[in-house]
Specification:
The protein is mainly β.
Length: about 600
């Protein structure tokens, strides 16, 4: 691109400064004698622009030289032609020389100014400091060459066709934007040359290469993998790198700070419902200069994993089946779910497997009709299989196993296993009694209590066989931190009271109490056997009818007064056998 040439710029500046000086010193001193505008040295020849001096007659241009930049300087030669703008200095040994120029005009008493001091070496390099991607463009910055003769900079970029010149930058500018690069397709490499008015150029500086960022997705692990090439060109190397991410256009935030040697980063727990844009920021060691990579954006195609799977409740129903309820995230992409079961919370096996419901919903339930929660405690887990065949298990939960036993003195003693659902806490237990198919609340006991004694009424035959169940009132903590109340019922257990057999100690076949018959209290039986013997062991009477008694006769004859022996054997509905016997008296 065309800009003001350095030489033109300096000529203008010198003229302005001279004018200011003339105006400032007009009452104090005379005008100054301007030197030639020293442009450059090419090979053995010095070049300059003709100065403008009107103070007196031209005599010559004077050329001074030295082997050291700080002198001392000696007169090398003079040019007597006022219009000549060059001077040849043979230099067969190719030594390094330093030059400056003066104008010799017949201007007595006026100050003679010197030109810049230049040398016969090629210009020193301009150091690239940064090649940073900005959208579809690349921004370049560099440090100016310390050589005063440098008038412009040539920008080069490496391509598949070789290294090509992009532009020449004049006017002391030290930045450039390349709008024709391909930073989103590849890493771009740049060089810069410093050049003077004679066409002398510096050597190529060390190239700088941009960071080209690429991404890939691991669908089954919900990961986005970033890979890039290291920034090239900084003398001090890369001090650190930063990974930046913008999620759904909310603005870029710093995701991670990593070492200068890293060329990859894994972004975890990505979601396929969000749009991600990433870029890498490289930072030079010691200087803090930053260079950006290209930006990569994507909405990843991921397999949404099963998250927040929690078995919420295990509840025994009245038909002795077990109801399981659980929560899960409705966005999960699963093939099936399995109900796992075990009796000791150790090695779970699959009880049943079902395809994933459509839609999945936030929760689900299942009924276990195979296990027997009345026989023992039963443990459960829920397991899911996602589209990547990855298994996820829930917390465990178990049934409450309730057992009841009759006690002497007409009471039933209940014991149960503690409420046991991982991530849940019991508050208390409510105890319920079932008589004739109707349940009633009995009592509530604290969380640490797992037993209860319930009295029964011996005058109520219906209470000879009473059923019970226990309900744990608990709170379950869900993965999002919320707490939900639940009720977990135990199995139903029935308690048959111990039968009691009461017999009179005497009877009178011809008196008031003419029949000898034992009485069975809570005697709901499935088998009854009543026998009477005389003192010699002879069987006098036998019956299996609980309502039948002995009338004192044997073969139609009333037996003599005296002592007799009876035996009663009953089998209760629960299989319990009760036997009772003794001696009674027949009175006449």
């Amino acid at each position: 691109m065309s800009k003001l040439r350095i030489t033109d710029y300096w000529k203008l500046l010198v003229k302005v400064c001279a004018l200011v000086a003339i105006l400032f010193f007009s009452n104090k001193t005379t005008a100054q004698v301007l030197p030639p505008d020293f442009l450059c040295v090419r090979s053995d020849t010095l070049y300059w622009d003709i100065p403008t001096n009107s103070c007196g007659t031209f005599n010559s241009y004077e050329v001074f030289f030295s082997a050291n930049p700080t002198g001392p300087f000696n007169l090398l030669g003079t040019v007597s032609n006022q219009g000549q703008g060059f001077f040849h200095h043979p230099n067969p040994a190719s030594d390094t020389w330093y030059y400056y120029l003066q104008s010799d005009f017949n201007c007595p008493g006026q100050m003679v100014l010197q030109s810049d001091t230049l040398d016969n070496r090629q210009p020193e390099v301009a150091v690239l400091t940064r090649a940073s991607v900005n959208g579809n463009s690349i921004e370049l910055d560099w440090q100016a060459s310390p050589s005063p003769e440098v008038s412009a900079y040539i920008i080069f970029r490496s391509t598949s066709m070789g290294t090509i010149a992009l532009d020449t930058i004049y006017g002391g500018v030290t930045n450039f934007v390349d709008n024709n690069a391909f930073p989103n397709d590849q890493s771009e490499t740049y060089f810069i040359l410093a050049i003077d008015e004679c066409g002398n150029t510096s050597i190529f500086n060390d190239p700088h290469s941009t960071v080209f960022l690429e991404q890939s997705v691991i669908s089954c692990e919900q990961k986005i993998v970033l890979n890039w090439n290291s920034y090239q060109g900084w003398i001090n190397g890369i001090g650190s790198q930063e990974v930046w991410v913008d999620i759904d256009g909310s603005g870029a935030i710093l995701q991670a700070t990593i070492s200068g040697n890293d060329t990859s980063y894994v972004f975890e727990n990505a979601s396929d419902s969000e749009n991600y844009c990433f870029f890498i920021k490289s930072i030079e060691n010691g200087t803090g200069i930053e260079a950006l990579s290209n930006v990569v954006c994507l909405m990843p195609d991921l397999v949404e994993p099963m998250r927040d799977l929690v078995l919420k409740n295990v509840n025994v129903l009245t038909d002795n089946s077990v109801e399981l309820t659980w929560n899960w995230n409705s966005a999960a992409e699963i093939q099936s779910f399995e109900v796992l079961q075990d009796l000791i919370n150790n090695t779970f096996t699959t009880l049943n497997s079902s395809p994933a419901p459509i839609p999945l919903g936030n929760g689900n339930s299942s009924i276990d009709v195979i296990s027997d929660p009345s026989a023992s405690k039963v443990f459960y887990k829920i397991q899911t299989t996602d589209d990547c065949d990855i298994l996820v298990e829930s917390n465990y939960g178990s049934t409450i196993h309730l057992v009841g036993n009759p006690q002497p003195g007409f009471s039933n003693f209940l014991t149960w296993t503690s409420f046991d659902i991982e991530n849940a806490e019991v508050i208390d237990y409510s105890i319920y009694r079932i008589v004739n198919g109707s349940s009633t609340f009995v009592d509530v006991v604290p969380a640490g209590t797992t037993s209860f004694s319930d009295e029964v009424d011996p005058s109520e035959q219906a209470e000879s066989n009473v059923c019970y169940f226990v309900v744990a009132n608990a709170n379950v903590t869900l993965p999002n931190g919320s707490i939900e109340p639940i009720e977990s019922s135990s199995n139903t257990t029935c308690v048959e009271q111990l039968a009691s057999i009461v017999a009179p100690n005497a009877f009178a076949p011809q008196g008031v109490n003419q029949i000898f018959k034992p009485f069975v209290i809570f005697g709901e039986t499935v088998d009854y056997h009543f026998t009477v013997f005389n003192r010699w062991g002879e069987l006098l009477f036998e019956t299996k009818d609980v309502d039948e008694g002995w009338n004192g006769k044997y073969k139609g004859v009333i037996q003599p007064m005296g002592a007799y022996i009876f035996q009663v054997r009953i089998t209760q509905t629960g299989g319990r056998v009760v036997e009772e016997g003794g001696v009674f008296t027949l009175l006449r």
